[in-house]
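As noted in the main text, all predictions were made from sequence alone. Below is one such record, for Protein Wnt.
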Amino acid sequence: MLNIVKKHNIGDAQGISTKGANAAVAVDASERLRRSPSRVTLRAGGGPPPAPFPSGPRWVPRRRATLRRCPSSLASCRYMGAVGSSRVMCDNVPGLVSRQRQLCRRHPEAMLSIGRGVAAWTAECQHQFRQHRWNCNAPERGHRLLGRVLLRSSRESAFVHAISSAGVVFAITRACSQGELKSCSCDPKKKGSAKDSKGHFDWGGCSDNVDYGVRFARAFVDAKERKGKDARALMNLHNNRAGRKAVKRFLKQECKCHGVSGSCTLRTCWLAMADFRKTGDYLWKKYNGAIQVVMNQDGTGFTVANKRFKKPTKNDLVYFESSPDYCSLGTAGRVCNQTSRGMDSCEVMCCGRGYDTSRISRMTKCECKFHWCCAVRCQDCLEVVDIHTCKAPKTVASPELRRGQGSPPSPRWRRCSW
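Prediction:
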């Protein structure tokens, strides 16, 4: 700190402006922190992050390296860890509506957590659809393919809205518990003593503040649907709420015993979210049992399209349109199962276009033995397997092009009846 003060005095003595001296102080302080081997650790019990420096750019902990793995839906997330105005950062994130940009400017530190939530739900969506023609493959081919799916009110669109809303809840709640957000911390309601089937216990540790995560996700995710009250908006709002409720459904109580020789004379408990895979598996079951609905006469709710099915609850997924076969979107290069008769079979996955077979060699673990005590040792074995991949659709040229007669004739206009 003494060196910094000296630089400030030298700057004044040489006639350098006060603004330039303050900038030199901020740069020197930032350079010292960057070169320092120590790292800042955030308290697990919540609370705000370290206060920013009084002058110069806002100091951001070393979390910017994770931004390189941001999904393409937040293509401008490199701005989220940059030093500068929150307005500049939020204005450069594509796809946000006015209400979402307001929340971004009010909570700029939450955008990094939302980016993690997008990565989590995208990976979970790909896992659940890994054996289907449409496999939620937006990160590989950009969001054009996912956008075409979301244009329809199908059950795939219902699942995407539910899992994306759940991903934001999960990420924001986790950030609150880790003390990464200024606006929240651990659940403030879990204090004092309580009682369950095993007896009395004390609330302690850091309970996940899932109520805050639900409120934030509802304000942020539902902002795109607030403008319109049409059937599509009501469907998306219903599925968004089902996704948020799914995260809250899997809150579990974890406890730790205190006492002499392992006795449980005193228990300290807290609430924690389950792994996001449980939420994905639950929503996958809801996807398979999604209910097709139509708007009621007054336009305020849904009625089932088939009267034989029950009325959808707040936990069910709803959709309007039947799903396409997804063959037009293309399954070329997808790995299929030659012996299966399910959705991952080569006949279904490849849309009847056939498949190619290639033989590859890979290393696997074999001849594993248990050694006392306590390890399992395996050998590396070379395994030769056959991999089946779907063929690409054949492009058939018109007869005029095959005969070399130039460009094809322009189509004739005909009257269409709707």
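The chain has 13 helices and ten strands. Residues 1-27, 32-84, 139-143, 400-418 have pLDDT under 50 and may be disordered. These features were considered when defining construct boundaries for the mutagenesis experiments described in Section 2.9.
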